[in-house]
Amino acid sequence: MAEKLSFDRLDEAPDWVRNYYQIRLDVELRSVKADGFQRLFDRVMRTVHGRGYRDTAALGRLGDQGCDGYLQSERTVFACYGPDPYFRIRGAVAKFRSDLESSVKNFEIPAFMQKWVFVVNYPGTHPLLINEVMTAGVPGLMCEVWSRTDIVDLFMSGARRQALVTEFGSLPKNSKYVGRAYVVPESTQLPRRCAEAAVQLLRARLRCDEYGYRSALAEWSGSVAADPFGALVAQTQLLLGAMGAMAMAGYFDPEKLRVAPLLREAELSRSAWRDDGQRAWNLMMTVLHSVDDAIERKDQYVAPSVDPIGEDIDKLLATVVCGNRLALGLIRLYSRKSGQFETECLEEAWRLMLEIPVMQDDKEHGRHVARIKKTGLLDGI
After folding, report:
1. Whole-angstrom Cα distance, residue 69 to residue 57?
2. How far is CA 136 from CA 61, 101, 119, 139, in A?
């Protein structure tokens, strides 16, 4: 039974409750695209505004008239842009202009619409979009751009408890005791819930199961929010398993990574690779190189350096999300090379993930933590 909490809105909740839901939303925002982003935005708005917010649907040739959602109390029309596969500013500017033109054409100002908001699944507001807002020049209409940060801020300040549970689920029992996200757990076992949730997310994606993917994404986001460091350990292990399955079959040399094919299959941009994906990959490679400290490598390859995460929760979450994408890319590459079904390749990676020892005993636990410290992950703790 979920713990009874005495708060009406999320900004009145204990820190550990806020921490859980903020991480969960952040992970989901980083993981959705296109219509999935619009549906997630609808959930956030319903959590904050209840029935005052109306999500909309396109109808045949009429489309959605430039309106992806409507807040009646403020006469505000929302247009969402969750690019697939990744954000391009030219595409965002073009979408801004076309959606604004459609809204102005179809809705009366200010009787129906006095504010128009362009919502983008991007960490911040690009200057070119700010310029579009400043030069829109529609009489009687206020224009704004909301980024991912604005969505999270709105959610954290206005989410109502009852709607919060309905849209984002109840709190796991252990989330109160996880503490700050960068604290190393004392468990010597692979974080099973995090591992299973990460694999289930990939399985639904590979099966093209839209409903299953939504359910898996919610479960995975919840597991990351409840145990962020455990999710990082599990995700690194999954990436290691996916790489190991392909390498053991003779289709891949991790020391000679060709980035472009991997990013294409992972649906990851070059900028995302530079910012966060390379950190996830290098962390996996560092663990690979240090699996047995007693073995002296006789080749020229050495473990790569890893950008420290320290206490930066944003870096940690980005590393987990990009790690999942990279695992997806490896599974797809393995399937193309071997001719096996993608789900069969995933099951092989899952088996290896469970077989590769993370921490077998207290002594091994100490060595494992020492390896993680070498990467700089725990700097500042």
Report:
1. 9
2. 26, 10, 16, 9
Q: For residues 178 and 374, give the distance between their C-alpha atoms in angstroms, rounded to a whole number.
A: 23
pLDDT at 318: 92
Please work out, in degrees rounded to the nearest 5, the angle formed at the alpha carbon of residue 151 by the alpha carbons of 146 and 154. 110
Whole-angstrom distance between the N-terminal and C-terminal Cα of the chain?
Answer: 34
d(CA 329, CA 246): 11
> Per residue, what are the HEC states of 195-233?
HHHHHHHHHHHHCCCHHHHHHHHHHHHHHHHHCHHHHHH
**Percentage of the chain exceeding pLDDT 70:** 79
* Range(s) within the chain of domains with CATH label 3.40.91: 10-154
Helix (H) or strand (E) holding 91: helix 89-106
Q: In what order do the strands lie in the sheet with 115-120?
A: 53-55, 69-71, 76-81, 115-120, 142-146
Residue recorded with tokens 């455990």 = 230
Three-state secondary structure readout of 97-125: HHHHHHHHHHCCCCCCCCEEEEEECCCCC
Contacts of 310 (CB under 8 A, 6+ apart): 182, 376, 377, 378, 379, 380, 381
Phi, psi of 149 (to 5 degrees): -60, -40
Render the burial of 88-113: b for 16+ CB within 10 Å, e for the rest: eeeebeebbeebbebbbebbebeeeb
What is 258-291 written as a DSSP string? -HHHHHHHHT--HHHIIIIIHHHHHHHHHHHHTS
Which residues have C-beta within 8 Å of that of residue 19, sequence separation ≥ 6?
A: 180, 181, 225
Give tens-digit pLDDT for 156-205.
999 999 899 999 988 887 666 554 433 333 333 578 889 999 999 999 99
What's the token pair of residue 275?
A: 């910012």
Report residue 288 as tokens.
């690979």
Residue of higher predicted confidence among 374 and 198: 198
* d(C-alpha 304, C-alpha 266), whole Å: 21
The CATH fold of domain 10-154: Restriction Endonuclease (3.40.91)
